[in-house]
């Protein structure tokens, strides 16, 4: 398995480029190979570099190129490079076009640290998984595309307890994944505020996740008042996430 994946950042705003560089280098197994600020500089670098980057972080708004011109040129000429778009673009047609062009992910600016880390963890897992296989069976492809996970999540056999809604549970799972990437947990009070639900509802969902061993609790002792229960992912779940055995998020 490859131990370190190299990243090329294409971003004209030097402040954003530096933030993205720091985000990348916070995640183990990634190294920023180069930061370029224009389409011309990016193409020159790719043409002349001795070692092609594994992953390219591309801002769609680059001053010396128009629209998605740079995106398509890179995709046509350097098909071995994976791409993640990091852009303020929210137009549906533009995002759909990049998806058709085979991007690994699309991250909307301003970038969230935890969301950024999730993409890199997933990318590393994806690359390691592909390198471990000479051929892919249908089950492997379903796993990589998330198709099997999608089927399982809508299966009538998957029954949730009374009072647990799959949509709310999905939102809480995503929030816990974000918190896990940031290395923190959440209390029922914090969760209720973040999702706009009652404290008792938040606690009910968190305790359900504890019961199925996806979440653990610890007492958080403050300076005053009663200690609060803080909820974080279980060690096994977190270890899978950090050690690349976790590709898709529930």
Basic shape: elongated
Q: Summarize the biggest pleated sheet.
A: 5 strands, parallel
* Distance N to C terminus: 26 Å
Give the strand content: 15-25%
Q: Which secondary-structure class do the elements indicate?
A: alpha/beta
* Poorly predicted tracts of residues: 238-250
- The number of helices is 11
SSE ordering: EHEHEHEHEHHHHEHHEEH
Biggest sheet: strands side by side, in what order? 2-1-3-4-5
**Radius of gyration computed on alpha carbons:** 20 Å
What is the total tally of β strands? 8
- Work out the helicity level: 40-55%
Mean pLDDT: 85
Structure explained in plain terms:
With 250 residues, this protein is an alpha/beta fold. Helices cover 48% and strands 16% of the residues. The chain is built from eleven helices and eight strands. The strands form two sheets. It has a five-stranded parallel β-sheet, sandwiched between helices. Helix 5 (113-131) crosses helix 8 and helix 9 packs across helix 10 (199-211). The longest helix has 19 residues, at 113-131. The chain is elongated, with a radius of gyration of 20 Å. The model is unreliable at 238-250 (pLDDT under 50).
Write the layout of secondary structure elements.
Blueprint: E1 5-10, H1 14-26, E2 30-36, H2 39-48, E3 55-58, H3 69-77, E4 82-87, H4 92-100, E5 105-108, H5 113-131, H6 138-145, H7 147-153, H8 166-182, E6 186-187, H9 188-195, H10 199-211, E7 215-220, E8 228-233, H11 235-242
């Amino acid at each position: 398995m490859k131990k370190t994946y190299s990243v090329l950042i294409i971003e004209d705003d030097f402040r954003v480029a530096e933030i993205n560089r720091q985000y990348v280098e916070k995640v183990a197994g990634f190294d920023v190979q180069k930061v370029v600020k224009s389409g011309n500089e990016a193409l020159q670098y790719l043409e002349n570099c001795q070692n092609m980057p594994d992953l390219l972080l591309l801002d769609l708004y680059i001053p010396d190129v128009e629209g998605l011109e740079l995106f398509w040129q890179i995709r046509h000429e350097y098909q071995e490079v994976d791409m993640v778009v990091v852009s303020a673009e929210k137009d549906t047609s533009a995002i759909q076009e990049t998806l058709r062009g085979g991007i690994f992910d699309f991250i909307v600016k301003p970038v969230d640290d935890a969301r950024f880390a999730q993409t890199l963890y997933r990318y590393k897992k994806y690359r390691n998984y592909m390198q471990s296989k000479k051929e892919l069976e249908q089950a492997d492809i379903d796993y990589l595309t998330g198709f099997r996970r999608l089927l399982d999540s809508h299966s009538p056999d998957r029954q949730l307890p009374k009072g647990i809604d799959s949509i709310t549970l999905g939102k809480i799972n995503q929030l816990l994944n974000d918190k896990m990437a940031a290395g923190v947990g959440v209390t029922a009070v914090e969760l209720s505020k973040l999702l706009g639900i009652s404290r008792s509802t938040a606690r009910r969902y968190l305790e359900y996740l504890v019961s199925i061993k996806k979440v653990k609790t610890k007492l958080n002792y403050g300076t005053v008042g009663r200690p609060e229960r803080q909820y974080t992912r279980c060690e096994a779940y977190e270890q899978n996430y950090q050690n690349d055995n976790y590709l898709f998020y529930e």
